[in-house]
Design brief:
Number of helices: 11
Distance between the termini: 60 Å
Number of strands: 12
Radius of gyration: 37 Å
Structural class: alpha+beta
Largest sheet: 5 strands, antiparallel
Shape: elongated
Strand order of the largest sheet: 4-3-7-6-5
Bound molecules: adenosine-5'-triphosphate, magnesium ion
CATH superfamily of the largest domain: Histidine kinase-like ATPase, C-terminal domain
Length: 416
């Protein structure tokens, strides 16, 4: 219930046009003292409204005294909050729900009368409750957000995002915290769809690579080998008298030999079959050596002895991430040294690729979702998640004398 409290300085006697006397015709204009008094009074009124000391304001206008109650002022906000498609609450310091809108009651599938007055933690699991308490402390001076699950009265769970805003001054009813609760079901579904889609893109990419590798190996390499053989025959048949022609045939044979090697290198880089045959450590060695030879960037590889062969899927994930990371080093980093480390940590296998290049803003790097980025980092992350692990990208941009570079770290549980 609202209390109508009049300020003591506004007794408003009948017939009086308090708080400020309006000059009647013939009276002199208000002097400076009167103006100062009016100003002070206006300031005092504003302060009282601001601090919540008054529930109503009485003014004197042309049509006589008018009362503006706070309840009246609150009305549009109440309508707004009730029509929101998000839950809105105010809580006391001990998290008792002082006010909740209908939308929140619908979210927790509980009658509003039962929601108001109950403890907010009733709608959270113990873990989520603890996380929220922690956030509440951190959010002492600013708003904060957390994603949790609401436990509804029928036992169902609803993914939500809670935005917290501590109230600078506790309201008359003791409200210490305001909350907006957003239903994340749709957002989660979209995220899941996007993940599935990206996963499909990665798998399609994998199938395509395998296809290209086979085409290269079965057709192009065969053809190049046949040409190599023919050019060798040609070179052998040409007599030494035909010096220039013979030299041309020999050069042609050498070029074809190099082409066959290059095609085989590209083909084996694309073919997971080679990985299956040689194992991860051998592939990491071959890939890093080839990278150093081709690019001139020095590379240091260390492989911890792993218990046994890792699951094929894990090996492929780690190998693909190395390939993608090295491709980025070559294309973007301008690095001089690269370190690759394969280790076992607790129950995880971990691959770290570090370069001392120019670095980039890993927090805000353009993503394909925004339509302006490549696929490399995204596919690395998706591959890691697909294998039950996680990928972390840390990068320091070249600024002044600060050490710059990029580190990609992927961890995959050994049991996955
Ligand atoms: N090691 C690195 N050093 C410096 N910048 C990097 C590094 N790795 C990634 N980047 C930056 O991050 C961006 C995104 O990388 P990502 O691999 O996702 O896409 P891309 O390399 O541009 O394209 P794609 O991988 O599809 O060929 C790059 O364009 C580059 O600006
Ligand atoms: Mg890339």
């Amino acid at each position: 219930m609202k209390r109508l409290r009049q300020r003591p300085s506004d007794p408003l006697p009948p017939g009086d046009d308090h708080p400020v006397k309006r000059p009647t015709s013939g009276e002199p204009a208000p002097d400076i003292r009167e103006l100062r008094a009016r100003l002070a009074e206006a300031e005092e009124t504003l302060r009282a409204i601001h601090s919540g000391e008054v529930d109503a304001i009485v003014t004197t206008g042309k049509n006589g005294p008018q009362v503006f109650t706070l309840e009246g002022a609150e009305h549009p906000y109440r309508v707004l909050i009730e029509s929101m498609s998000e839950g809105a609450l105010t809580l006391a310091t001990d998290t008792t729900i002082l006010y909740a809108n209908q939308c929140f009651a619908r979210m927790v599938k509980c009658p509003l009368e039962q929601v108001t007055g109950s403890a907010f933690r009733r709608f959270l699991s113990a873990t989520d409750g603890a996380a929220l308490r922690l956030l509440d402390k951190q959010a002492a001076n600013a708003g904060a957000k957390i994603q949790v699950h609401l436990l509804a009265c029928d036992g169902s769970r609803l993914p939500v995002q809670i935005s917290l805003r501590p109230l600078a001054r506790k309201g008359a009813n003791g409200a210490a915290l305001a909350m907006v609760v957003t239903d994340m079901t749709e957002a989660r579904r979209t995220e899941e769809m996007l993940r599935t889609l990206t996963n499909r893109v990665v798998q399609a990419q994998e199938a395509e690579r395998r296809h290209v590798a086979l085409e290269l190996h079965d057709h192009i390499t065969q053809l190049v080998c046949a040409m190599l053989f023919r050019s060798q025959t040609l070179a052998n048949r040409l007599s030494d008298h035909e010096g220039t022609l013979k030299q041309e045939a020999i050069t042609l044979r050498e070029m074809l030999g190099r082409t066959a090697e290059e095609v085989e290198r590209i083909s084996s880089g694309l073919r997971p079959g080679v990985l299956e045959e040689l194992g991860l450590a051998a592939m990491l060695r071959a890939t890093t050596m080839e990278f150093a030879e081709r690019t001139g960037v020095s590379i240091k590889l260390s492989c911890a002895p792993l218990p046994a062969r890792l699951p094929a899927d894990t090996e492929l994930t780690l190998y693909s991430i190395l390939q993608e990371a090295l491709k980025n080093v070559e294309q973007h980093a301008r690095a001089r040294h690269v370190t690759v480390r394969l280790t076992k940590r607790d129950a995880d296998v971990q691959l770290m690729i570090h370069d001392d290049g120019i670095g980039f803003d890993a927090e805000h790097h353009p993503t394909p979702r925004k339509g302006n980025g490549g696929l490399g980092l995204l596919s690395m992350g998706e591959r890691a998640i697909h294998s039950g692990g996680a990928l972390e990208v840390k990068s320091v941009r070249r600024a002044g004398r600060a050490k710059s570079g990029t580190t990609i770290e992927v961890r995959i549980p050994l049991g996955s």
